[in-house]
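This is your field. Have a critical look at the following sequence-structure pair:

***
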Amino acid sequence: LSKVQAKTPDWLIKPGKDIGVPGIPCMMWSDWHWGEAINKREMNGVNEFNIEIAHVRARQLFQTTVDLLVKYTVNPNYPGVVINLGGDMVTGDIHEELTNTNDMPIMPTIIDIFGILVEGITLMADQFNHVFLACVTGNHGRNTKKIQHKQRAYTNFDWLIYQLLNKHFANDNRVTFYIPESSDALYKVYNHRYLLTHGDQFRGGDGIIGPLGPIIRGDNKKRSRNSQMGLDYDTMVIGHFHQLMMLPRLIVNGSLKGYDEYAFSGNFPYELPAQALWLTHPDLGITISMPVYTDRKKRAVKETKWVSIPGESRK
């Protein structure tokens, strides 16, 4: 079944010899909600999503990630990259409205996203030589009515996708998968300790601070629990909330599908489709954070100076 690595790849824990190495690029691919359809007419035209658009955005994600890491970094000398597959890769059939409106049934959806993930992982391996993938399940990929605490991984289509990818790359020594049966994945990049979890266990929030309250409370509870077990971590990486937040102790991912009817009806803050990207330095931990926007539509912007002071034009 899952190929849980007993030994972490050397490139992930030993700093390079070159002076000025920027660190290891880490990215979060989660909340793609592959197979879902978002009707722009139901939300004032601010977003649209379907299988065709999903392919465009995924490839935009792959190419923009490479561009940011290669073209806009002074010394793009990386030993490899880390990809966090954080769950909700497919939107699934957990709600009746999804079953009735999805762009594609679940089985063809799995085959389709498997192909695009193979494409993206292969590109990262070709570009950066080594890829380490930490994988956890989300809540949308489940095939049960409610989330199960027992056998959560085995009742989730995210886990199936990861295993298919694992088998596909089994003979490619550049690619390493870590697929725990737990809802959490713990690993280290150099000396920086990460905990990857989907985030569906954190519930609540309000109209002022949104999901930040339950996320921080959940992080504190998880840190306390892990400390008691000798499994301390420095940064928690989660998805689920579709609101990109990149902090030293906490990284919350955006989504690939973007703003949907649920967020529109709930008056949630507007979010562009985006995924998290950051560098982990051998000595400093998390340094550069770079959101990767996957739907960069040109907007009419009034021409102005590169910096200006409000009211100065009236003088």
Q: What stands out?
A: The mean pLDDT is 91. The CA atoms of residues 248 and 260 lie 28 Å apart. Residues 106-128 form the longest helix (23 residues).
